Fold each of these.
Amino acid sequence: MTAGTVLRILELVGLYTFATSGALMAVHKGFDVIGMLVLALLTALGGGILRDLIIGDTPPAAFTEPLYLVVPSVAAVVTFFVHPVVRRLRLTVLVFDAAGLGLFCVTGTLKALAAGLGSVPAVLLGVMTAVGGGVLRDITAREAPALLRVDTDLYAIPAAAGAVVIAATHGSGLPLPVVATGAAVLVFLFRIVAMLRHWTAPRAGGRARPA
């Protein structure tokens, strides 16, 4: 399996999971089907569009690849009909968000490396790809972004860990499908455990702040 194929598969899966988290947020907030579609598209495509603009890959893939619009739209429609009981939506949003976080930090870092960026800029772009859509989703849904809330469990740090794994192993000869999948799973589990154990990063004065 080629690097391009791995990247495309991971991006499509990430698009679906992030779009689902956006659509579930819309249900949680009582939005109609149009609101669900808007939040799904913003969550799925926002971080990737910013990444593509920064690395000069224009127009962004979201506007040239039909699947990049079809997949989030399908996720929104499916969620419209089969979303779980309302009182359980918040947890479900976070689980899908954790999955998207893992997948997008991997694809963002890989695409940045493929564009010729060094390890540190690639890690930064990987994190931005992972968290950008979620920030846009929260702002549009009139929520304080999870990335910035004081009570938020570790968020950017798990994404950074996955991006560092990808950057550190780039060019090592290790099988890309194994490394990419492993890094995405690492980020997902890191984020889930952080939520279950309420891990936060320290801030000035010894109080916790979001990461």
Amino acid sequence: MTDDTVVRTEVDAAVAVITLDSPNNRNALSAALVGQLRDALSDAGTDAQIRAVVLTHSGGTFCAGADLGEAVRRGLSPQDATAQGAAAMIDLMNTMVTMDKPVIAVANGHVRAGGFGLLGAADITLAGPDATFALTESRLGLAPSIISVVLLPKMTARGAGRYFLTGERFGPIQAEAMGLITRALESESELSADLVAVCEGIRKASPQGLAASKRLTTAALRATFADAAAERAAESAALFDSADAQEGMTAFLSKRKPEWDMSAS
């Protein structure tokens, strides 16, 4: 491995443990991270010796979403960077949903933006005590458009209705209650023990049984994924190109309130 490696894979008794390992930029979805994650998922998906994938992270953030700054530094316009990020997010979510092997996401840090897409596309999601969640897109003049493709089928309507709109931060207990995650664990030791239990259960299953069972649990999402993703990508592009989004991003980078912010804080 080289210093350019930002996604690392280890195999533990037929389970591929894929770690997002770019803590300096909060495991943001840079071109390097996206490419290496796609390759790691593909390798695990085609390896007959691998029974399941665990997707986890180093550092205090599971994933902060698209790394638009990195894309712009590579010479892309903001519009092209946004389009590239949307396409990458759709590809990663689709890969996770459609691969025959179960994907278990483990988050014990901050989850923001595209990080929700990775959680939503996973079959099982465990969160530790240090996990925090916030869908802050509305505060920037945007919406959680693309990630909604995998979130809305799993979250309760009331949960999505509150947190999609307000951008409030919430914790693992609320995330479990609204179906965003499978289970909230109160300590790192409990998180580790629950992951072991999940993986041991999967190791007892036949590859055929796992694949057939996953197809049942993802059938509705897979049937609508392509059309929904295309619609949400177009919506996302239009929002990013709007005056509200320009004001929201400018205010965020300037560390000031956007012009529409009427809050007391």
Amino acid sequence: MSISANYGPPADRRQGIDLIRAAHDKGVTFFDTAEVYGPYTNEDLVGEALAPFRDQIVIASKFGFDIEGGTGGVTSRPEHIKKVVEATLKRLRTDRIDLYYQHRVDPKVPIEEVAGAIKDLIKDGKVLHFGLSEPSAKTIRRAHAIQPLAAVQTEYSFMERDVERNGVLNTCEELGIGFVPWGPLGMGYLSGKISPHTKLDPETDLRSGFERFSPENLAANKAVVDVLQQFGQTRNATSAQVALAWLMAQKPWIVPIPGTRRLDHLDENLGALQVRLSPADLAELEAAFSRIKVRGGRMNKMFMEYVDTST
């Protein structure tokens, strides 16, 4: 996403293609995009970048925002899904989407109807696996009963723990569903490269309106980054690498998706694979984190309204 939108102005297209292909060369096999990133431009970029080795990798994309209607709201009517999937396939230059997520739950459309539409697309071979993004535990169960879910995607990081408390992680474990944390570096904050003095453009950077990215909360939450940095110093690892290693150590079915537009950050993120955390390491990190109160909500009110909290 960050290559094309939402975390600042879009990167140069050639830069984005080169970065994605470099990631493949370094062993990355799972690439995540969505029609709303841009909108549309990121799917097109990903499609061009991955075309030479399409059969060697897995592509995830997402549907569910009312882009054409211009309302900014969500829409997951079955007829809408079956229409937009054709455009996504064209932009991705492929005949199938390996993992197709509902980007946000549509309260106006029963999740059973959404799952049924995806079931039809799977029968047609246009989609291989079904996913949900930011669903509640109840919605996961209802969808899974119609069309088994391969993955659930929700924000989860060392500093953002809602899914540990709301039943989502437990439900995924019970049902055998993979979990894909977006924002595994706290939307970049846990890298230690964002300070209270960092200027985020309100025209191009969504984070500028999020509570956790206010100058006062950026300052208050530095204690979280300090924990990661201090621990990393004993392991020759950066705070970003420790944060990613922490996620991967939680469960073997958790697959974080750190995004970047820079080759040095890609290499740094991949370096997390070399950081192995023992139970004692995890206990040490948890003890330090338990003494910190994270300040500010994870997104603003408008974005949080799209998070499914049905019970």
